[in-house]
Design a protein that fits this description.
The protein has 506 residues and is mainly beta. The protein has helices at residues 94-102, 122-131, 268-274, 350-353, 357-366, 430-433, and strands at 33-34, 36-39, 47-56, 58-59, 62-63, 71-80, 83-90, 142-146, 149-153, 158-162, 169-174, 189-190, 196-203, 209-216, 231-237, 251-252, 256-261, 264-266, 286-288, 294-300, 305-313, 316-327, 330-339, 370-378, 399-402, 408-411, 413-417, 421-427, 442-447, 450-451, 462-466, 474-479, 486-492, 501-505. 9% of the residues lie in helices and 39% in strands. Bound molecules: fe (ii) ion. It is a lipid-anchor.
Length: 506
């Protein structure tokens, strides 16, 4: 069971506005910087902490507007023989290389439109218009292994193979070539043997939208690329025929997939016309359905089989699953949710995040509020009577109730709730506990959308901390996962912009 986090009174005030510096452009490094050490690095930490985030927030005179638009910068803290170095490189995606070459935004990003080259004559502009908008490969969200390779990723159909040692960009891979998906999340699940599962929306039966779970096998004996053997293992239907929900992650227990279909929808008509209409971007295509609430879907993993029970709960926003596991005929899954139906990304425009602290606070007052919730679904719900709680696990207050219309209404157990204080970017001891009953989850305190705790901006456990006011502005902090006490830190004299996700590569 997740241990409840006690609510402590903190005072998070940022009069200096230091946080603005984590949304500013930096340069890549030509060689790794040695870090200054305090404490002793545990001998079992031999490897690299790899993280991704935006590093270039404007090109020439053109700014990027949204938190997820800056060009992908890969960071690496490297640990060997008790020494630590810090290194970073821009991923040489098409979006980046062409932006640098033409000194303007060439490929439309999540919340920033690319405009046709004003220098081209009217005829070539006409053709640019009809060629449509290119899909971005700006892989600023996460990095994960496939077989023996490593990929920097965003949420489109493009993933980018990188060298995790040199941070060199190797090749762009189009997942559409291998499986029926329109995009694929930055949060796959990876089994202990290296098999990767991921989810993306797709065209399903009868031209309806659907969601496919894709399986990429582990490394191949014949050394071939496992991506070539990618396949769809199961399909989830869409609550709305032409409007798939935005999907950021999913859950996987030992034998089941959990997919939460939230009311944040992609309006396909708007989306398709955005390909032709100048001045549209991805953010323009989202809309929230106030009526539909949230649909929970379950599927068997092997062999893949959709389980057609109609689990429903109230509207919520969701980006990150914490964990999912089976217990006595139930699936328990824990989520970092956001209350209501409004899209949280509407609050992540850079202009809002860079405001003065009073404005940042006001902004967070009107935004959806965070809450960590535990849901439980029964795997065999039809045996019980209508109106009765079907959940009999002794340790949770989460309920599931069969209603007259055959839907099963889920009410969560609230694990942690504190206004404007999110428990987000969750981490668990993944290799040991993913898909299994577990005790501890770790996360980042997101205070009014600014990732911070008292004027530092950490990520999790092995964490990159940015402290803009200090002499050495960035450090890798090594915390004891038992009590979060500091074991060591490795500081460098350069600032790191915000990072989203990453991995420890032993
Ligand atoms: Fe994420």
């Amino acid at each position: 069971m997740v241990e409840r986090v006690s609510k402590t009174k903190y005072n998070f005030e940022h009069p200096a506005g230091d946080y603005k510096k984590i949304f500013e452009t930096v340069e890549e490094l030509s060689e790794p910087l040695p870090a200054t050490l305090t404490g002793r690095i545990p001998s079992f930490i031999r490897g690299s902490l790899l993280r991704l985030g935006p590093g270039l927030f404007e090109v020439g005179s053109e700014p990027f507007y949204h938190l997820f638009d800056g060009q992908a910068l890969m960071h690496k803290f490297d640990f060997s023989n008790g020494q630590v170095t810090y290194y970073r490189k821009f991923i040489k995606t098409d979006a980046y290389v062409r932006a640098i070459t033409e000194n303007r935004v060439v490929i439309t990003e999540f919340g920033t439109c690319a405009y046709p080259d004003p220098c081209k004559n009217i005829f070539s502009r006409f053709f640019t218009y009809f060629k449509g908008v290119e899909v971005t490969d700006n892989c600023l969200v996460n990095v994960y292994p496939i077989g023996e390779d490593f990929y920097a990723v965003t949420e489109t159909n493009y993933i980018t193979k990188v060298n995790p040692d040199t941070l060199e960009t190797l090749k762009k891979v189009d997942m559409c070539k291998y499986v029926n998906i329109n995009g694929i999340t930055a949060h796959p699940h990876i089994e202990r043997d290296g098999t990767v599962y991921n989810i993306g929306n797709c065209m399903g039966k009868g031209a309806s939208l659907a969601y496919n779970i894709v399986k990429i096998p582990s490394k191949q004996k014949d050394k071939s690329d496992p991506i070539e053997k990618s396949k769809v293992v199961v399909q989830f239907p869409s609550a709305e025929r032409f409007k798939p929900s935005y999907v950021h992650s999913f859950g996987m227990s030992e034998n089941y997939f959990v997919f939460v279909e939230t009311p944040v929808k992609i309006n396909l008509l708007k989306f398709l016309s955005a390909w032709a209409i100048r001045g549209s971007n991805y953010m323009d295509c989202f809309e929230s359905d106030e009526q539909k609430g949230t649909w929970i879907h379950i599927a068997k993993k092997d062999p893949g089989e959709y389980i057609d029970y109609q689990f429903r709960t109230s509207a919520m926003g969701l980006f990150h699953h914490i964990n999912s596991y089976e217990d006595s005929g139930f699936i328990v899954f824990d989520l970092c949710t956001w209350k209501g139906f409004e899209f949280v990304y509407n609050y992540l425009w850079l202009a809002n995040l860079r405001q003065n602290w009073d404005e940042v606070k006001k902004h967070a007052m009107i935004a959806p509020q965070p809450e960590v919730r535990r849901f439980v679904v029964p795997l065999d719900p039809y045996r019980e009577e209508q109106g009765k709680n079907l959940i009999s696990l002794p340790y949770t207050t989460a309920t599931a109730t069969m209603r007259e219309d055959g839907t099963i209404w889920l009410e969560p157990e609230v694990l942690f709730s504190s206004p404007r204080q999110a428990f987000e970017f969750p981490q668990i001891n993944y290799e040991m506990n993913n898909g299994r009953n577990y005790t501890y989850a770790y996360a980042l305190g997101l205070n009014h959308f600014i990732p911070d705790r008292a004027s530092v901006h950490p990520s999790v456990l092995l964490t990159i901390v940015v402290c803009p006011g200090a002499q050495r502005q960035t450090y890798c902090l090594i915390l004891n996962a038992k009590d979060l006490s500091e074991i060591a830190r490795a500081e460098v004299g350069v600032i790191s912009p915000v990072t989203f996700h990453g991995m420890y590569k032993p």
